[in-house]
């Protein structure tokens, strides 16, 4: 297995001489079978030798996550020949991922079992409600479940059922967390999660009516939102400069156009499939990241030309149905678009507070407003549920502000 991953003789010899060769090769074969890219497998194989050395693993044994975390920090701070300065959080994270995956594959990773709670069945029902009926995003569900679980475990030692819970109990929970150092934003997030959970419990007749209404999160000081995207002139320059004939440049141009002209989020672009494009009617379907909604958009001529060029000359032939796939096998959906955009923006010295695909989304919204598009139409076009998210562009659009300042009531004196 090692010979198929590495070419240099001294690297192959180094990997073969390290302990637990068979156990490491078994895991590397497992990664190959799961279509992990070759570069990632090579990095994992190299880190596994450090895992064995730092954790002093002579024979495979059970380990827990805490031991791996300690070893990762120790490894990241080592002064190695190939490392000019101590490692960072990213370095220790790579060590943790490789070690956990290896030990988990062999069934030797001990994970702390979460103690059972009498409210766990109710929490599971709440998760199903959010997932299937409310159709919330996985991230929203994960955050809400974590916050609700923390409240229910605190509540378990005080009440047998939710029916006996009073507003004072919720205040006691939040006050206890404030004393632990929770900031107002954290308290507000938990208040929102508890409000949703208690509203669900009330619909099932499991708590006092109107209990969720008494929860009020603390007032938050709103920082002045700032437009973080580049100017539209720089966006046009960015697209114009991405006109190469290599597969990388052709793919990048199609991605940049989707970001700039439609203001699509990264997740919305990476979820695009070949079946989403109706070339006969010149439309394509976008699955929005928020609320799981779908939206049909017309295929703009320049975008269509860029995507067709990518499909004909840059996209590798593979079974994956996603529009954008990795350039090297095993082919899989392209997930990280940040480097595709940010590297090109920085190379052209484009001025922007943020770099990456989302900055082009801001630039798209700003340009639509400059052309006179209403905030309601911008919100609908970008897939927002309301106009709050796009109202920041009006605050920073000097043309709109000048129009407001020049307004006359027309009173004749």
Q: Write down the CATH topology of the largest domain.
A: hpI Integrase, Chain A
On the 0 to 100 scale, the average pLDDT is: 83
The unreliable regions are: 400-413
Structural class: mainly alpha
Can you tag this structure with a few keywords?
disordered C terminus, mainly alpha, single chain, hpI Integrase, Chain A, 3-stranded antiparallel sheet, DNA polymerase, domain 1
Summarize the structure.
By secondary structure, the protein is mostly helical. The chain has helices spanning 2-5, 9-17, 21-33, 38-54, 65-76, 89-105, 120-133, 138-156, 167-179, 184-203, 232-241, 247-262, 266-270, 301-313, 338-347, 357-370, 375-382, 391-396, 398-405, and strands spanning 63-64, 109-110, 277-278, 283-287, 294-298.
Notes on the structure:
- With 413 residues, the chain is mainly alpha-helical.
- The chain has three domains: 2-110, no CATH class; 120-214, DNA polymerase, domain 1 (Orthogonal Bundle), CATH 1.10.150; 232-402, Intergrase catalytic core (hpI Integrase, Chain A, Orthogonal Bundle), CATH 1.10.443.
- 55% of the residues lie in helices and 4% in strands.
- The strands form two sheets. The protein has a three-stranded antiparallel β-sheet, with no helix packed on it. Strands 1-2 form a two-stranded parallel sheet.
- A hairpin with a 6-residue loop joins strand 4 and strand 5 (294-298).
- The longest helix has 20 residues, at 184-203.
- It is globular.
């Amino acid at each position: 297995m090692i010979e198929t991953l590495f070419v240099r003789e001294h690297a192959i010899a180094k990997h073969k001489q390290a302990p637990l060769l068979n156990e490491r090769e078994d895991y590397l074969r497992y990664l190959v079978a799961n279509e992990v890219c070759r570069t990632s497998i090579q990095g994992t194989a190299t880190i596994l030798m450090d895992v064995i050395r730092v954790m002093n693993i002579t024979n495979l044994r059970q380990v827990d996550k805490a031991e791996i975390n300690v070893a990762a920090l120790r490894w990241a701070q080592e002064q190695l020949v190939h490392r000019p300065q101590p490692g960072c959080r990213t370095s220790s994270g790579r060590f943790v991922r490789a070690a956990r995956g290896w030990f988990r594959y062999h069934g030797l990773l001990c994970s702390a079992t979460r103690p059972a709670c009498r409210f766990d069945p109710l929490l599971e029902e709440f998760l199903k409600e959010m997932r299937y009926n409310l159709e919330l995003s996985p991230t929203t569900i994960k955050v809400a479940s974590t916050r609700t679980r923390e409240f229910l475990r605190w509540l378990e030692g005080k009440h047998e059922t939710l029916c006996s819970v009073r507003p004072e109990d919720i205040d006691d929970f939040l006050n206890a967390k404030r004393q632990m150092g929770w900031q107002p934003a954290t308290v507000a997030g938990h208040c929102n999660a508890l409000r949703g959970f208690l509203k669900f419990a009330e619909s099932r007749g499991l708590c006092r009516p109107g209990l969720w209404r008494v929860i009020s999160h603390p007032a938050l000081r709103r920082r002045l939102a700032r437009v973080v995207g580049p100017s539209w002139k720089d966006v046009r320059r960015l697209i114009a400069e991405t006109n190469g004939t290599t597969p990388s440049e052709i793919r990048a141009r199609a991605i940049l156009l989707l970001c700039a002209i439609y203001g699509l989020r990264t997740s919305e672009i990476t979820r695009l499939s070949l079946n989403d494009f109706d070339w006969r009617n010149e439309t394509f379907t976008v699955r929005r990241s928020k609320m799981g909604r779908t939206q049909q958009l017309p295929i703009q001529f320049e975008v269509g030309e860029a995507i067709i060029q990518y499909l004909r000359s840059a996209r590798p032939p593979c079974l994956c149905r996603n529009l954008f796939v990795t350039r090297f096998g095993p082919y899989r959906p392209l997930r990280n678009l940040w480097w595709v955009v940010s590297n090109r923006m920085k190379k052209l010295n484009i001025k922007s507070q943020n770099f990456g695909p989302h900055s082009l989304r801001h630039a798209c919204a700003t340009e639509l407003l400059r052309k006179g598009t209403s905030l309601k139409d911008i919100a609908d076009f970008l897939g927002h549920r309301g106009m709050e998210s796009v109202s920041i562009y009006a605050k920073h659009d000097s043309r709109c502000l000048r129009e407001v300042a020049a307004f006359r009531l027309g009173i004749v004196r």
